[in-house]
Every structure is written in structure tokens, then in C-alpha cells.
Amino acid sequence: MKTSYMKLRGSQYFRQRLLLSTLSSTPILVEDIRSESASPGLRPYEVSLLRLLEKISDDCTVEINDTGTKLRYKPGVLIGGKNVVHDCGLSRSVGYFLEPLIVLGLFGKRDLSIRLKGITNDCKDPSVDTFRTTTLHILKHFGVSLDGLELKIESRGAAPLGGGEVVLVVPIVPNNLSATTWIDEGMVKRIRGVTFSTRVSPQFGNRMVFSARGVFNRFLPDVHIFTDHRSGQSGGRSPGYGISLVAETTAGCLISADMAVSHPKTEVDALMNFEEKPELMSPEDVGTQVASMLLGEIEGGGVVDSSHQGLLFLLCALCPPDVSKVRVGKLTPYSIATLRNIRDFLGVKFVIKPEPTTNTVILKCVGCGLKNLSRKIS
Fold first, then answer.
1. C-alpha closest to that of 33 among 23, 43, 19, 24
2. Mind listing the UniProt keywords for this protein, alphabetically (predicted)?
């Protein structure tokens, strides 16, 4: 039987298209992947993501042409798996791979337990701390039990040399997700957070905590920020530091912001020569900046922060054919693209209604009713 492929162009939203293609069992043909670029074709982290999908599914086929500008991907059956190990490489952090994994893990044949190696905290992708404190908790609003769902940070790795390791465990959903009405934001009642520091003075953590608290203490007494200083083996191979903050509201919403500072890739040679280290942002500035970012996210409104909108919409679309209704702040360009991709792959359309009084947006959809067909029928 001839496979019919959905035709797509370009490298935009590559990860999301692969995720939706896998969930909806839609084979895709992607052409013109950075064909105009000075270095055309798929990036190492995108190839790594394809290899990861091969590891957790059975019978999936990946064909890439010589220049890497054309890809045929035919999804297989998600099998999950115990003790899977994947090296994420050093061009993107572990966060890039975690988001598709937590969704795919729910729909596997068996529970997924996977060890990811690479960079745990960088400035591009959400940090592993944000995943642990915020992202995983979004699933409980869709009827996923948090028992057994965990992310362990065994060692940290800052850019450019990484060296971090995390273990993600995602149990499968027995039948399907449940539709949600999640529009009550509540008021912020407490702030929690964690700083990380690797191969720098342990004092860096305290300095970030002190400056972040300086911003919040004017508004709210209940602020606890923990410090996680790693040295030796568990501190990875590069110096770095950063902070991840979460605001918890009276309605149980978690709003997060994070940031990491480390030497850029090009400085690997300069790191060997201690005189030439470029100046990095001070721990005080990092603490103040992330605290301000978090206040901005809170002010934006919505039940999740802007970086989690896409995941929220995807989970709504995967629910049974029942109405889900959620409130978010201003839609980000990535979220708008997510809504388009959901329409193309799952056939789910959202009704979008702005609320001018609160500057938030209410979105409603009827889920596509994705069932976990790969799990064993007992």
C-alpha cells in the first residue's frame, strides 16, 4: 500500500510537527529545510530528536537526503521502554527533548523511563527545574496522576560542554486524558524557586537568592528559594549558574520563569586560557532579571505562563470529544503556530475569545479523542 505523506516546507516548528505527526500517525514529507541557509539541512539536535523517536517507537522510518534538506518521516507505534538512554548532544539542552517526551510517554505501550544526557540548563530552552516544578504539574489538570511521573536531576551540565544527566519517568494513561475547564487564575500566594551553580563559587547561589528576594519582598512574605550547588562529577563539565522561579496561585496555577548563564560555545578555547574569559552577567543581575520576568508573566495573566501555552493547547486538543476551556495571557507567536499545526494534524479548531477587561484570552475546543491504542489490552 502506498503511503500518502502530508507535505510541509521549511524548518519552522520542526519538533512540534514531528510530535503531532507521531501522535496522529500521519507520515510527513518536509522539504526545503533551510535550503537557502549558508549551512543547509537539519541541525544536529533535530537529527538527535529523530533518533530519539526511533528509540521509543517500533517500526518508524526516517529518510533524510544527502544534504539534509528533505525528510520523510513515517511514525511507528509508540512503545515507551525501560532504561532507554539518549545523548542529546550539545547543540540544544535536554529541555528541547523533554517537552515532546512527556506527551509521547503518556500514549506508549509501556511506561517510559529514559535517561537523557547533555546540557540541563541554558538560555534557549526551559530548564530541567522548570519541567520538574511546573510542566509536569500541568498534566494533572487533564486527569493524569502525578504518581510515578518524575524527573530526577542526577547531575547538572551547563553549556558549552554539558555533562548533565536527568531521568524522566512517564507512566502511560490507561484510557485517555480528561477534558478540562481551567480558567480561574487565582492570586499569587507564594513564590518558590531553585538556583543552580556548577563549577563556580557556592556563594553565587546565595547572591541570586538575595537579589531575587529583594524584588519579591515588597509584594509578598512567602518566598523560599533553595540553592543547588553541584561540584565534581555531578557539576558537569562547564561553569554556569542560573535560577528557576515559580509563582503558585490560590487556584493552584504555577507560573514560571528561568534563566541560565554560561560561557558561549565559541569560547571553549578561551576557557582553557583563563585570562580571556568574557564577562558574564553577575549573579545579582540574574536574580533581579528572572524575578522581573516572573512578575511580567504574572501580570500577563492566564493559568500558565507564555512558555507553556503551546503544551496547554496540545493537551486540550488530545482530550476526548468534550469541551475544554482555558484562559491564557497574550498569545505568543509560537502558540499561534501551535494552534495552526493542531488544526492541520488533529483537525481540532479552537474558538478564541479575547477578554479586554482582563487582557486575557479564553480558548475553547472539542478534543480529538486520542486514545492510547498502543497499550496492551488486558
1. 43
2. Nucleus, Ribosome biogenesis
Name the pairing type of β-strands 112-118 and 164-170: antiparallel
Contact 128, 98 (CB under 8 A): yes
- Residue 197: which residues within 8 A CB-CB, separation 6 or more? 204, 205, 227, 228, 229, 230, 240, 241
Name beta bridge partners: 248: 190, 254
- Exposed, middle or buried: residue 329 (CB in 10 Å: 0-12, 13-18, 19+)? buried
- In 3D space, the residue among 189, 192, 187, 231 whose CA is nearest the CA of residue 209 turns out to be 192
Q: In the chain, what is the greatest distance between 2 CA atoms, to the nearest angstrom?
A: 66
Q: Give this prediction's pTM.
A: 0.94
Task: Provide the strand spans (E) within the chain.
Answer: 6-9, 28-31, 57-58, 61-64, 71-74, 77-78, 81-87, 112-118, 150-155, 164-170, 181-182, 188-198, 223-230, 240-249, 254-262, 323-328, 351-355, 360-366
Chain segment 31-49, per-residue pLDDT in tens? 999 999 999 999 999 999 9
User: Residue 374: pLDDT band by 50, 70, 90 thresholds?
Assistant: low
CB atoms within 10 A of CB 345: 22
- Write the pLDDT tens digit of every residue in 104-126: 999 999 999 999 999 999 989 99
The answer to whether residues 312 and 326 touch, using CB atoms and an 8 Å cutoff, is yes
Contacts of 39 (CB under 8 A, 6+ apart): none
Given pLDDT bands bounded at 50, 70 and 90, which one contains residue 2?
A: confident
* Overall residue count recorded for the chain in this entry: 378
- 1 Cβ contact partners less than 8 Å away, ≥ 6 residues apart: none
Task: State the sign of the Cα–Cα–Cα–Cα dihedral 131, 104, 302, 94.
Answer: positive
Q: For residue range 256-279, what is the model confidence (pLDDT) as tens digits?
A: 999 999 988 764 454 555 545 678
